[in-house]
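Ops channel
N.P.: pipeline sanity check, posting one input/output pair.
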């Protein structure tokens, strides 16, 4: 938390200097606003006012009892009344479930590019042409073999793919190839790049290279080594961040490798983040180099399909087990899907979001243990009664004057019976939902939507009213052979019965498919199937959905936050992964005391921001400065000329700071600034 704007020299000043700064606030502000760098000094609490996490937790949650140590990252909930054994069980349950889900994720991620790696190994192990052998040095050099690997658009995903490839080649091909990695860090120029190639090869071969007759960057060092030892081993050079390489340097590296390709068995792999490899080559590689190269194109697995594969295996399996006992709510499914599509398809970000959702669910809910172990004590039964879904159910029953509603309020056995019934209902619910999702997926012969996209629309209640669904249901538009193919595979991935739970609606559909004689009858059969009450009942209307489904956590705040740009949804998972930066900056600029405490003089930029708020979308710099300087109070001891210089320097500094924050941006006309995405503040 920023306490004040202070330079490095001021942060190590003596107590006397600090006292003088407090005595002369105008001088301090004057000096601070001419600094080019600032250091955030965290506010240190005194021993008397020091508060640990237990006290902070009680203050935030309103818990009155003392927080008991649990020897786990989880705390005792129910206002501190949750038994210690249940806290430990809740934490172990989280670890068990996430361990199972993590294994699924790692299995998918680790095997996603196995086909690519096998193709690269085949490329590396291709036989060397005869005229590359030392026995025929008079022949012309062979064209350099270059493999262009089309990677994803996400840097973190690409680094993981390369790490997996390095491990793969070490396990499968370490005897026949030697790996050298080049990147912008170890290749500042052509001499540095060639030196790095020689250095890595020498270190990998026990420093046995004889470089006494050569310059430190001469590839002849490697040529002499291969002349003595033969060409059985290949040098595989991988350029990791090609898109960041200087084009001239990249062409120089390739040209140098081409010039020695008859003496040194090079295989060059270039990783690319581009739409098409051919257009990148035409725009970045010189024509003479292209003529002397033999290019091969490779493609890594698409992260979009990989992400959907992970989501499918985590959330779209038909069973509810102790290793996978939770459904995903409609709001959370929308947030995860939208963030994945809008966050550069980052697999790492997706995994972090999913893990955080599981963590939040078990951390904040003491009732989460009931999914695997029923606790019939009064504490937990009363906890069930406080759930919003239970309250809705009771209100509905009391509205029709049902005695069951009164029994649920007074009889614990009735609540336990309802919970056990609901648990079985969720098993049926998931089986029916997953079967219906698979049926809808098969109805589209072009497979325009992924299963998780369909699931999100289905649980949000938007699928059956969408144009896409009507198009899928109208199978009369397809030729007879397409209709036959759709019908034959309609329920291929569906299960009528699983662990003693039956999908009666799917059973009826299968019987109807066998008896259907024409297309209109088939359409009518499908319409009836999709009208079953399980599909039309929202998850949030089911009793105890807070226990059996994840929602990403709820934020309890004293004020309403504006909707977020990406999802227009708000939950705890999103707020932890991506805090609302705009609101934080606005709050700090409008009211600096929120973060700086009681200060005599607020930072000068705060006054600038207040003037900015009143300005139009296009801000004239002269008018902006005049309004800003007029809003400040000139010290009596300062002359007009000095005050003008001071305010003008503050104004320039604040303009650059606001541009850095993204609040304003320069227009083509040098006389104006423009409000960036912050219009309307």
């Amino acid at each position: 938390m920023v306490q004040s704007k202070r330079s490095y020299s001021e942060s190590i000043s003596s107590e006397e200097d600090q006292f003088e700064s407090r005595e002369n606030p105008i001088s301090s502000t004057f000096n601070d606003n001419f600094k080019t760098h600032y250091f955030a000094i965290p506010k240190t609490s005194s021993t008397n006012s020091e508060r640990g996490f237990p006290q902070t937790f009680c203050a935030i949650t309103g818990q009155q009892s003392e927080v008991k140590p649990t020897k786990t990252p989880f705390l005792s909930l129910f206002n501190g009344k949750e038994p210690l054994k249940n806290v430990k069980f809740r934490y172990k349950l989280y670890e068990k479930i996430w361990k199972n889900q993590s294994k699924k994720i790692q299995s998918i991620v680790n095997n996603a590019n196995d086909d690519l790696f096998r193709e690269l190994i085949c490329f590396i192990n291709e036989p060397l042409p005869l005229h590359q052998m030392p026995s025929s040095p008079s022949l012309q050099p062979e064209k350099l073999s270059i493999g262009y690997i089309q990677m994803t658009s996400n840097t973190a995903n690409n680094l993981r793919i390369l790490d997996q490839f390095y491990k793969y080649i070490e396990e499968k091909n370490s005897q026949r190839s030697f790996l050298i990695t080049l990147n912008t860090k170890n290749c500042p120029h052509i001499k540095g790049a060639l030196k790095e190639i020689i250095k890595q090869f020498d270190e990998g071969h026990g420093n046995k290279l004889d470089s006494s007759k050569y310059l430190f960057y001469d590839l002849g060092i490697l040529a002499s080594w291969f002349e003595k030892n033969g060409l059985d081993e290949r040098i595989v050079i991988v350029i990791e961040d090609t898109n960041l390489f200087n084009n001239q340097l990249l062409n120089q590296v390739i040209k140098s490798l081409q010039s020695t390709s008859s003496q040194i068995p090079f295989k060059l792999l270039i990783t690319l983040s581009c739409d098409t490899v051919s257009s990148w080559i035409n725009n970045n590689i010189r024509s003479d180099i292209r003529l002397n190269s033999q290019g091969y194109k490779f493609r890594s697995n698409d992260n979009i399909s990989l992400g959907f594969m992970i989501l499918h295996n985590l959330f779209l399996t038909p069973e509810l087990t102790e290793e996978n006992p939770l459904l995903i709510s409609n709001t959370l499914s929308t947030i995860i899907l939208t963030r994945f599509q809008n966050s550069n398809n980052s697999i790492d970000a997706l995994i972090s979001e999913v893990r955080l959702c599981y963590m939040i669910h078990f951390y904040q809910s003491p009732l989460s243990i009931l999914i695997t172990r029923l606790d019939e004590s009064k504490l937990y039964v009363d906890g069930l009664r406080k759930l919003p879904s239970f309250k809705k159910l009771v209100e509905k029953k009391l509205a029709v004057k049902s005695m069951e509603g009164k029994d649920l309020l007074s009889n614990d056995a009735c609540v336990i019976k309802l919970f056990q019934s609901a648990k079985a209902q969720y098993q049926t619910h998931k089986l029916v939902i997953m079967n219906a999702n698979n049926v809808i997926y098969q109805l589209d012969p072009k497979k325009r939507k992924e299963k998780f996209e369909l699931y999100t629309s289905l649980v949000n209640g938007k699928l059956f009213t969408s144009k896409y669904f009507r198009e899928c249901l109208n199978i009369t538009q397809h030729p007879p052979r397409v209709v036959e193919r759709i019908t034959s595979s309609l329920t291929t991935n569906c299960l009528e019965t699983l662990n003693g739970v039956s999908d009666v609606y799917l059973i009826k559909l299968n019987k109807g498919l066998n008896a259907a004689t024409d297309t209109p009858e088939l359409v009518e059969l499908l319409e009836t199937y999709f009208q079953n009450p399980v599909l039309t009942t929202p998850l949030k209307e089911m009793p105890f959905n807070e226990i059996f489904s994840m929602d990403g956590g709820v934020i309890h705040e004293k004020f309403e936050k504006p909707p977020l740009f990406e999802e227009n949804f708000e939950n705890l998972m999103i707020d932890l992964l991506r805090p609302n930066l705009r609101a934080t900056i606005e709050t700090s600029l409008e009211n600096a005391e929120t973060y700086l405490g009681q200060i005599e003089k607020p930072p000068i930029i705060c006054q600038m921001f207040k003037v900015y708020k009143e300005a139009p979308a296009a801000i004239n710099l002269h008018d902006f400065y005049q309004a800003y300087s007029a809003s400040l109070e000139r010290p009596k001891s300062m002359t007009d000329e000095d005050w003008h210089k001071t305010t003008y320097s503050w104004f320039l500094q604040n303009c650059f700071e606001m541009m850095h924050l993204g609040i304003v941006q320069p227009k083509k006309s040098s006389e104006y600034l423009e409000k960036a995405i912050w219009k309307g503040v």
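N.P.: looks fine end to end. Residues 1-30, 44-50, 130-141, 557-568 have pLDDT under 50 and may be disordered.
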